[in-house]
Write a structure and sequence with these properties.
The protein is an alpha/beta fold and 380 residues long. Helices cover 25% and strands 20% of the residues. The chain is built from ten helices and 16 strands. Strand 12, helix 7 and strand 13 form a beta-alpha-beta unit.
Length: 380
């Protein structure tokens, strides 16, 4: 309260230095208007001109002190982070049996999808209390009838799409490759809308959602995807897209609102919720001798850099402050839905969905009506 603060004043447009003054927090907060009127002194001008008195006066009209909260303040206060993975199973990835396929499972090296899952998942899992992650696939023909799906559980259990830990994700992914047929097109909107339905049910800040989409191709349903992202931008949701393979991903940059906020049909996104990164910028191609662990660390740092900012921007916009951290001997209250099994407390319920423990509820959200795709979509 008594430590001196040095306040510098500059011109709004040019940032040219005007002058400075010294004060302290107690005076700012408790002083009268007369106490909080200061002369701006420019030391360089004062040294040059004997007649110099000041560069003007500045008066404080209002002082408001806000505590700056962090991402970890919300986590320790009980906010749940829910991580979902969506995997591209379109035919442009190449037949998994072929060594040059992006889905080829080798004995001595990870394929591009495995690298992306490990890089992001190993970081995000530390903020997910139950380590149970829904894993979705899109763009494949699935059993038992061979229908094309753009929103299916990779473990083929639509009522319980959770995989236990990163190991469970990897196991379900590898197992699925022998039961599906890669097909197409590359539609993102179904999996985005899937996670958005969950996020929409939690406007109180108790849950935040991260969707990781791993893909090799150009989006076929770009308009639907833009609409889904713009609508989801008001929800507690961040989307990470990792592009794998040699394709050109120029269209993906449009979704990442770093340069210009995404809009669709005149409606702009409320905030930037998408981070896109090409895997090849961080990890070498097939047969590369690049240090995989170092490359994955660099990838994780890049793709997750914006998530805390996106998280905090949503909380601040909705006026949600973190709950106090519980005493060390206690655990944060777990979020979930009524009747949820203790092992699955981290991932909340969709308004129309059910998991084990809700036998009377409607089934877990299924594919529903998908947007009509072009007859020969790019990336098919």
């Amino acid at each position: 309260m008594y430590q001196y603060l040095n306040v510098e004043c500059v011109l709004f447009n040019s940032h040219d230095f005007i002058g400075e003054f010294k004060t302290n927090m107690r005076c700012l907060r408790e002083g009268t208007p007369q106490d909080n009127t200061y002369q701006l002194i420019n030391q360089k001008l004062k040294a040059k001109k004997k007649s110099y008195k000041s560069s003007g006066m500045i008066s404080l009209l209002k002082c408001q002190v806000e505590t700056e909260v962090t991402f970890l303040d919300y986590i320790t206060g009980g906010t749940q982070v829910n991580f979902t993975v969506a995997i591209d199973f379109t035919a442009s990835n190449g037949a998994p049996q072929q060594p040059n396929s992006l889905h080829h499972i080798g004995h001595n090296r990870q394929n591009a999808y495995e690298q992306a899952i490990l890089a992001v998942g190993q970081i995000v899992q530390d903020y997910d209390t139950d380590k149970l992650f829904p894993v979705l696939g899109f763009g494949a023909k699935i059993p038992p009838d061979g229908r094309v799906s753009h929103e299916f559980a990779v473990n083929f259990n639509e009522q319980n799409p959770f995989c236990a830990g990163i190991g469970g994700i990897m196991g379900a992914y590898k197992n699925s490759l022998s039961h599906i047929q890669l097909h197409g097109p590359t539609n993102f909107s179904p999996v985005i809308n899937h996670v958005a339905r969950f996020a929409e049910a939690y406007p109180d800040g108790s849950n935040y959602f991260i969707l990781l989409i791993i893909t090799d191709g150009v989006i076929s349903d770009m308009d639907f995807t833009k609409s889904a992202i713009v609508n989801a931008s008001s929800l507690p949701l961040s989307i990470i897209i990792i592009g794998v393979g040699p394709a050109e991903f120029d269209a993906m940059e449009v979704l990442d609102g770093d340069k210009q906020m995404l809009s669709y049909r005149g409606k702009s996104a409320e905030r930037d919720i998408v981070q896109f990164v090409p895997l090849r910028d961080f990890v070498g191609g097939i047969g590369s001798s690049t240090n995989v662990m170092l490359s994955q660390a660099r990838l994780a740092k890049e793709v997750l850099a914006e998530v805390p900012y996106q998280f905090l921007s949503w909380m601040k916009k909705h006026g949600i402050k973190p709950n106090p951290a519980p005493p060390p001997q206690q655990q944060p209250a777990q979020q979930g839905y009524p009747g949820q099994q203790p092992a699955q407390q981290g991932y909340p319920m969709d308004p129309g969905g059910s998991y084990p423990g809700q036998q009377s509820a409607p089934p877990y959200p299924s594919q529903g009506t998908q947007p009509t795709a072009p007859s020969a979509p790019p990336g098919y």
